[in-house]
Amino acid sequence: MNVFEKEMTYRGYIKYLIPSIFTMIFLSFYTTIDGFFVSKYVNSDALAGINIVIPITCIIFGVSVMFATGSGAIIGEFMGKRNQKKANETFSLIALVLFVFSIIFTIFGIMFLKPIAIWLGTSEKLMEYVLPYAFMVFLGTIPMAFKLFFEYLVRTDGNSVVGLAMSMVGLVLNVVFDYYFVGFCGLGTFGAALGTVISISCSTIIGLICFLKFSTIKLCKFTIDFRILWKSCTNGCSEMLTELSTGITTLLFNIIVMRVYGEDGVAAVTILMYIYYFFIAFYMGIAVATAPMISYNLGAKNYMKIKKLLRFSFITIIVTAILIMGILYVGKDFIIKIFIEEGHVYEITKEALFLFSPLFLFNGINVFLSSYFTAIGDGVSSAIISTLRSLVFVVLFLLVLPIVIGVNGIWVTIPFAEICTIVIAGYLYNKKGIKFTS
Question: What is this structure's pTM?
């Protein structure tokens, strides 16, 4: 019996979530670890330089997660219908397309490295930190894209522990290599990116071995099915939009904050983003673990199982939101000092975090509902939620609130965006979600 068919208690559900949550937390640590080491062994300008490059990684992760989540829902449905051949062919097709994209993106990025850095808003002062970091990020496109792709798809196959192993190995190696290249060799942001790419490559190899040797989902010969490719793209576009929107809004934040606070403000934004990525990983873990189960049971027409999964998910998200707010309220000083000692950057970050943190009361539901709609094949509703919370409302409030309430409007932009989105997400859930007769 497939693991997704088994009866599940709430305790069993939590047990199933844990590997996925830790996987997403470890994934969130990759850039954070780079920031930690360069802030400790270089300076705050190097930390700001890493933040300038975030939009590039958002494109890589965005395309990867689009293919992973979009095809994952399709593969899950095929498996629920006992059509393993179509599941394997879909996986193989999407893997090839992702590989081709990665090669093209690598070549383009290296050819136009400095113009891209200038377009991303770097100052002359930060250029020496941005260029080497961006170069290694572009060079590592293939392993970065496939690490995320494999980590998502192993959950579709019911092997969330493999995803956890990939993340743990990558995380440990990232710490070791970053310490060696940045702390010991003094290679600065280049060393940080080099350590990340090597550790991600090792993690990707684990995923590749899993799919070649141990997974139910296999690479196989296939004919190009443009309908499957299109459905994978449209179904997963919301997750891609989330990543791309993060890059766009990070770029806007950097430009606006640079005008108000200078390079210290960009460093503060970087720390805020690290905190954001860490805590949203809990919600992402819930979403990515639950989505394959929903897709599988949708294909198997087991609607009561889906109803139970949704109830478990909402309870877990609410409890998690309360815990996150408690941690941020009690431990905000300790968390900020992980990255920076007391000073101007510290003071900016502390004030900003107080205004920024309420977003965690709302974004868990938004993240989950976007993933839920992807899982049931409603890419449009998923895209609406993702685009509103991560782009439309963010840009709107970022342009309006600082004018209306001053500089504090910068830091409350994302909480306001999440509050507005949750209203629309709830409406879509009631209107277009799966209807249960009992």
Answer: 0.73
